[in-house]
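User: I'm new to structure prediction. If I give you an amino acid sequence, what do you actually give back? Let's try with this one:
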Amino acid sequence: MTKARLSSGADATGGIGRATAGDRPRAHNIWQKLGPHLLPFADVATAELPLKRLLRLALFQVSVGMAMVLLNATLNRVMIVELGVAASIVATMVALPLLFAPLRVLIGHRSDTHRSVLGWRRVPYLWLGTILQFGGLAIMPFALIVLSGDSQGPTWLGPTGAALAFLLTGAGLHMTQTAGLALATDLADESARPRIVALLYVMLLIGMVVSALLIGWLLADFSQKRLIQVIQGAAVVTMLLNFVAAWKQEARQPHLTSPSRPRLSFKEGWQTFARHEGATRLLVTVALGAAAFSMQDILLEPYGAEVLGLSVGATTQLTAIMALGTLLGFGLAARALGEGRNACLLAAQGAAVGLVAFPLIILSDPLGSPFMFRMGTFAVGIGQGMFAVGTLTAAMALGKSSRSGMALGAWGAVQATAAGLALAAGGTLRDLVGGLAADGALGPINAASAGYMFVYHIEILLIFVALAAVGPLVKFRRSTASDVAKAHQRHEKPVRGPVGIPDFPT
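Assistant: Good question. You get back a string of structure tokens that encode the predicted 3D arrangement of the chain. For your 506 residues, that looks like this:
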């Protein structure tokens, strides 16, 4: 009887022991699934590109973000307020880097077909872009001081020096980003590229936010000496960040850069790229979407101040609100693409978020609701982030094998050019329509908000056109998240091709 009881107890204990042991792997699996679910970049690393190496590579985006903050934000105020430069000259200087945006296609093509006995294709252009950024930032503070008239010298020296500084910095920025993204495409496994794209743009956003806070703090006690120290310090930091980013990243491949290797001309390379079905439609979508989300960039804070009566501190918070929305958009894009979502479908969903965001901003005026305005701003950031990652991932799919530079250069050229032109058009249309309303030419409407409302309605129209353009590119893939997970467990690529990337047959 005792033996039976002991045997029964042993069985029960053993059963409990086996159940507990069986629960451990189940709990472990739950935690494994919970990590990537809550942290979209938890599984971004691969065996070929560990997380440490990937984060180091992403430092080039931090340097690009720092240069963008200097060109488009900090120096605007410094030139107009502290240095007393005319606003028209400042606008011209800030627009100069856009002249190099269309050349990103050529830069990408040249990196694809670069000839070198060293066997590197991307690193020479990444480093050349870094040198151009360094040179532009090194001479920029002196050129701005001369431009302000606070020093003796020929009158032409200030505008010429400032124009050269902005051109060099802008050219270096575009070259560095194009070559860096192409290098990331070369290094990344196809199934991991969508998440890597999102992570790189998160690093760009982090670089912009940290740089804006740090540079603003350093220039709080403004002086010409402090201006020279801060901008030239940014030049040195750019060199250091990009040197660390490029160190031992690209393997030497002499067979791709041999001087005896036949070299495709730019015309032939573009024709090859354009033959991809959907390439032109994708670029049109990028242009329309970039214009739709960028036209309001310089109008949000004035709208909040003039129409809703927000304080300076409250309007300054809008930048942080939009940045948080963009960060969330990047995270949602990384998670969706990692689960097999079609990249063009994701871009369309990002555009659709804009159809909710801009009406919220518009309705905040008649309802007198600053909260609704902030929610609309947050939603604009989400839509913009999803749209950018979706279209860039789709562009990566066009750059098969050794021609990723051309595809990424085309995406960058179209995106930057469209955003810049839309930015200028938004300000012009706001002033034009606002002036007409103030003169009573548009009837009994609110003159303070008329110009803003016109621009926001134009952006909604552009989003509808962008959705019509991207529609035929949205092809649902058959691969599912479970298929991808099983493939990763077997250390294989998904059998149906890169996850989240649409097929573009040639």
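You can read the tokens as a compact description of the fold. Here is one thing that stands out. The chain has 19 helices and no strands.
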